[in-house]
Amino acid sequence: MVSAGGVAMRLVADVTRCVGAGQCVLTDAAMFDQDDADGTVVLRVDTVPAAAQAAAAEAVALCPGQALALVPEERAP
Amino acid sequence: MGDPVTDVTTQSTPVFPLPRTCPFAPPAEYDRLRATEPVARVPLPNGDWAWAVSRHEDVRSVLTDSRFSSDRTNPLFPRLVKGERVSTDAAPSLINMDPPEHGPARRAVVGEFTVKRMQAMRPRIQQIVDGCLDDLLAAPRPADLVRHVSLPVPSLVICELLGVSYADHDFFQSRTSLMIARATPHEERMQAFGELNDFLGTLVTAKEAAPGDDLLGRQILRQRETGEVDHAGLVSLAFLLLVAGHETTANMISLGTVLLLENPGQLDRLRRDPERTLPAVEELLRYCTIADLATSRVAVADVEVGGVLIRAGEGVLALGNAANRDPEVFAEPHEFDIDRGARHHVAFGYGIHQCLGQNLARLELQVVFDTLFRRFPGLRLAVPMAELPFKDDAFVYGLHEVPVTW
Fold this sequence. Notes:
The structure holds two protein chains of two kinds.
Chain A: E1 9-13, H1 23-27, E2 32-34, E3 41-43, H2 53-62, E4 68-72
Antiparallel strand pairs in A: 1-4, 2-3
Chain B: H1 29-36, E1 39-43, E2 49-53, H2 56-63, E3 68-69, H3 102-110, H4 115-138, E4 143-144, H5 145-150, H6 152-162, H7 169-180, H8 186-209, H9 215-226, H10 231-261, H11 264-272, H12 277-288, E5 296-299, E6 303-305, E7 308-310, E8 315-318, H13 320-323, H14 358-375, E9 380-381, E10 403-405
Parallel strand pairs in B: 2-8
Antiparallel strand pairs in B: 1-2, 3-5, 4-10, 5-8, 6-7, 9-10
Helix pairs in contact in B: 4-6, 4-14, 6-7, 6-10, 7-8, 8-10, 10-12, 10-14, 12-14
GO molecular function, one term (chain A): 3 iron, 4 sulfur cluster binding
Cofactor (chain A): [3Fe-4S] cluster
Keywords (chain A): 3Fe-4S, Electron transport, Iron, Iron-sulfur, Metal-binding, Transport
């Protein structure tokens, strides 16, 4: 899957920054889940489907702990 | 940029916190500050001053910067009530903690409030709301929405969450209402406060003897696993959940109902399409921003915000109600529009302290509005809106009473 710019994007989560607010799950429950024990983010996808790029970007922007990032997919070596 | 410390206090700026002069509008001064002085030195009731931050971007930047501390035991923390004393002996609470202590403490509890776990509570919340609406229906008209719905719904939901037995619901609910109601005399309020604290202490002791499948039971088992048994900490947590989850939700139920009744076109759209309720709840949260004053901080290092240097030891008021009406971020910010679809408001705060119970609050509001307006299609205010007793002077904005009829 690629973005409009032709670069596939990947989600990265830093669970040490996550405060379990659940904004990402509210944004897109197909991409994000929360750990049952400590509420921290669990990524359900690695590469972001093209149709979900706007939702992924919204989740990144809403995250109160700034625990999420969208990064360009690295090419296989 | 100049030296911000010397001479930027605007002589004309009134003492904070400012009252709301229109029931559903932020203090008028907020628009002026945001436009002309987005990081402004403002006087406080005790003669101190603090920085009032009013742009959405700056509010988010303050609330995500670890150089701004939430430690209310810091003597330099901005005090918003005249004569408010610094309590240095209170049990540590999540709202007062900074990193690195805050993260593990929050993660020990926040698993109880995940989106999934809240969804699992939905049938029980629906039952609670149905029961309260049965009471409202049976009450003589006009009836007070606050007494029959706004206060009991969150109180009973907290009972459910904490595992308070059904037999104790009446006691719990009557004391929480007394603690909050404006008409309660001071001594009676203090007595209700003490009785609730004792009750929660006894509840925690009982759960320690037989930990059940509820929030406190799970916290106890978790503490035993880590070997950090902390009775006082659990009582303090139970009280925090009660204080933070009761009046806030109650006020949003009251304000939201009034706001929707005052906007019949939007209420009609909401009634016809339950899919609209969740976005409508987000807009109600933005538009009311009842906990505008909860997001104060004290700088523990020099930090530049919006081009102004804030020095270590200076207080900051991150004004959520100004941020949520920032025209740079919300088009026509003073319009109430249930179809706005804007979720980046800061009504629940922002940063690591963003409301722990936000998804519970969303769910309660969603179930209340869906059910109330369906079961009471003719619901209306029994007095003109201008006569409603708004909590102009309260720390958490809301309504003391909402007489309704149908």
